[in-house]
């Protein structure tokens, strides 16, 4: 299985103008100290020291800014799910604009560094060389202050984006259903013990992920477990973004209603999710071990058929009943059809 990373994990810490300036000046001073040890005529030495200071400051600042650009993945090349996340969490346009400011500043500082280094080489006195260096430092400070808002914006964006969970580019099942219907029990049963819990910015409960061969199964507590009218805009967008992650939704119904929600309520949530998602939805009627009345299950099945659910499973996640059939279905549906075919299939379903 390929090991992929959240594409924002590689973004470096973003230094603010004062921090970056202090770092550059420290390095400049260090280089200057080395130069001072050299045996040279006084004017030549003064020029030499100041020129190296300027060049060092310019390259520390310009390289640092350029590194941010280089280590930030271009949004348009990201998987669609992460593109959506950038839009929801930070705003794609603002993000691009801010990185543009980094580029502008980096190039300008490098150019100024060259210009001032040349001027210093022609300085007629040590004082003049020192004055030129000070002028250069002042200009770099002012450039950094000018892009301070963009630096702060990218720093906040990085904090939000680097904590997104790492989804693998594998066929993905997203589990939905009210709390306590058995979602995490099923996830554990299907994927073994190694369920990862990741932070997810839209829910305090995190996101649970597991792998069944090359199928990724994701449980999103807090997202697909209550009616949509209770959602704010950001949550709705986060839910919609799951469209780009999911190839299939597995909706779980607790037939025993011990979860605290009636069958009617659960079916209503299913209808909402079905309307929102462009991918096929299958339903697992769970906790059948707790329901003695056969008629009740039949009744649920009838209603699911009316809603137009394409496949229904009767399971007990806890007792391990019906899970083999579910697994086989996933393998057949997700591994023997590639992702694009699945998406096409989903679009056909919705047209
Ligand atoms: N008898 C029985 N109990 C089950 C079954 N599936 C889950 N449970 C129990 O139902 C309770 C809730 O299960 P969870 O897996 O935590 O439910 P969940 O949907 O993940 O809940 P949230 O994390 O709140 O969203 C637990 O006590 C499980 O042991 C089942 O098939 N049969």
TrEMBL record:
One of its GO terms (molecular function) is GTP binding. Keywords: GTP-binding, Nucleotide-binding. CDD domains: NOG. Residues 171-335 form the OBG-type G domain. InterPro entries: G_OBG (IPR031167), GTP-bd (IPR006073), NOG1_N (IPR041623), NOG1_Rossman_fold_dom (IPR010674), P-loop_NTPase (IPR027417), Small_GTP-bd (IPR005225). It comes from the Archaea. This is GTP-binding protein.
